[in-house]
Structures are given as structure tokens and as C-alpha cells.
Predict the structure.
Amino acid sequence: MDVAATLLRTLPSLAALRALLLSGNQLGDAGLTALADAAAHGALSQLERLYLDNVQLGDQAAAELAAALDTGALSPSP
């Protein structure tokens, strides 16, 4: 597994994160796939706002982020 994905999944401080501004960072599919994987494993359970302007989002990562939204892994808290 990718180091970034492992880091995102295991940092306990991410669980309380409410907003994540990644705009302008050239994450590409690999970085955004790691983000979706972290969300799928509950690492971003309190995230309410995710900013992804200009991050080189490709089709693969877009599909994985959409799946995370569909499953509720990336959704605002009530």
C-alpha cells in the first residue's frame, strides 16, 4: 500500500478534521485515490468541506471520490 494512503488512514487527528483545503496541489489520481481510500476506512468521518480546485483530478480518482460520496464515506455530518 502507498505510504500516503497508509498515513491518511492511520492519523487519528484526521478523524476530527472538518475542512480540508487541497486546492492548487497537484495531487493527481494517486493522491486523490489515497484520499478516497482514507475516507472509505473512516479516517475523515467528520469532514464537512473538501476543496479540490486545480488538483489534476482524472477519471479514475473522480470515480473513486464519487463512490466515497455514494457510500457516505465523504459526507457532511448531520
In short: Residues 28-40 form the longest helix (13 residues). Helices lie at 3-10, 28-40, 59-71.
